[in-house]
What does this fold into?
Amino acid sequence: MNPETAQSVILAAICLPLLGAAGVQVLGRFVSDNARDAWTVVIGLATFSQVLRLIEPVMAGARPSLGLPDWMPGLGLGFEVEPLGLLFGLVASGLWILTSLYGFGYMRGHDEKNQTRFFTCFALAISAAIGIAFAGDLVTLFLFYEILTFSTFPLVTHAGTEAAVKAGRLYLGILVSTSVMFLLLAILWTANLTDDLGFQPGGILEGRIEGREAMLLLLLFSYGVGKAALMPFHRWLPAAMVAPTPVSALLHAVAVVKAGVFSVLKIAVYVFGLDMLSAGGLSDVVMWIAAITILAASIKALSLDNFKARLAYSTISQLSYIVLGAMLATGAAAMGAGLHILMHAIGKITLFFVAGAVYVVAHKTEVSQLDGIGRKMPFTFGAFCVASFSIIGLPPLGGAWSKWFLVTGAFEAGEFWMGAVFMVSSLLSIGYLMPIVVRAFFRPLPEGEDASVADAPLLMLLPICTTALLCFVVFFYTDAVYDLLAPAFGLG
It folds into this structure.
C-alpha cells in the first residue's frame, strides 16, 4: 500500500462514522427507521473494511501515517497505525456492526424513544474510538479521548429519567475531571521533558525523568485515563448501567473502557517503554492499585443481585488485568494485556447482550429472578455460558490465551503475588458468573411464570450467537493476533 492510499484509508476509517452519523440524522428524520438502520449497517461494514485494509501493511512492518494541518498554532493532528492501535481499531469497528444489529432489535423491542439520536451518537463515538486507536501522539489521543466522553454522554442519559441524569452527571464529572486534572497535566509535563509527544517504540521518556518523579508521572497518566476505571475513580461505570443495554455494550466492549485500557497500555509501551517501567520498581504503585481493583471489584460482583451491575463490576476487574499486564512490563505480560483487549471485548459484549435480551423478552433485571429461564431461552443462555467460560479463562475459548500470557508474564517479572492475583480473580469470576448459569438451567421455573417466554428476537439473537462463536474462533486463531502484536512488545 503506497503512502497516499494509506492516508486515504486512515482518513476514511475515521470519517466514515461521521458520515454515518449525518446519514442517520437525515434518514431517521425524513425517510424511515428502516432506511436509517440499513444506512448504519452499510457504514459499519464500510468502516470495518477500511480498517481491514491496514492489516497487510502493518503486518509487513509498515506504519501507515497521516498528518493533518494544525488546528492550533503548533498543534496538528497526527495519526500512525501501529499493531496495538490496529487491533483496537478492528475491535471497535467490527463490534460496531454487531452492536448495531442488536441495537435495532433492542430499541424496537423495548419501544425506546429518540432512536435516531441514539444511533447518531453511537456513530460519533465509534469515530472517536478509531481516532484514539490511530492517534500518533499524545495531543491527538487526548483530543479524541474527550470527544469520546462527550459523544457518549447523551447515550448514558438516553432514558431521560432522574436516575439517568444523575448517572450522566457522575459519568461526565469523573471522566472530564480526571482527564483535565491528571491526563492533561501529565501530557504538559511530558511536553516539558521532551519536544516530541509522538508514540515511539521503546518510549520517549527514558533518560529524561526517573525515580519518584517518573512514578508520579506514571500515576498521573494511569488515573488521567479515567475510562480505565481504576479504583477509586470507577464509580461512573456501574452508575452508567441505567443506560440501554446497547450502550452498556458500547461502554464495556466496543469503545469506552477499551479506549481507556488501550490508552494506558499504549502510553506504557510507547511513552515510557517497557524497559524503563521494569527498572527500579517504577510501576509498582500502579501495579498494586490494579491488583487491588481486580480483587475488590470481583468480590463486589459476588454480592450484587442486579444483572447488569454484577457484569459492570466484572468489567472493572477485567480492565485492571490489562493495566496490571502493562505495569508488569514484560513482553509476555504486555502481550497478555493486548490479547485481553480483544478476548474480553468479545466475551463481555456477549454477556451484556444476554442481559439486554432477558430484559426485553422477560422484563427481568435481577439474578435472583433468572430461575429456569435458560430452558426457555436456550440459545441466549447457551451463549452466556460460553462467554462466561471465556471470561473465566477456560480453553478452548479466547480468554484462556490472554490469561495464560498474563500469568506467564507475572512469573517472568518475578511478581508471583501478581500471578496469584490473576488466578484468584479467575476463581472469583466463577463465583459471580456460574451461579447465573446454574439458576438459568438447573433451577425450576417459578410457579405462575409466563410460559410464553422464548428466545430473544432474531435481530438480537444473531449478534449474541455470533459473539459467542467468536469466543471459540479467537482461541484457534490467536497466532494471527500474536503475530500482529509481537513487534509492539519486542517479541519474536
Observations:
- Strands lie at 65-72, 75-80.
- Residues 162-193 form the longest helix (32 residues).
- The mean pLDDT is 90.
- The radius of gyration is 21 Å.
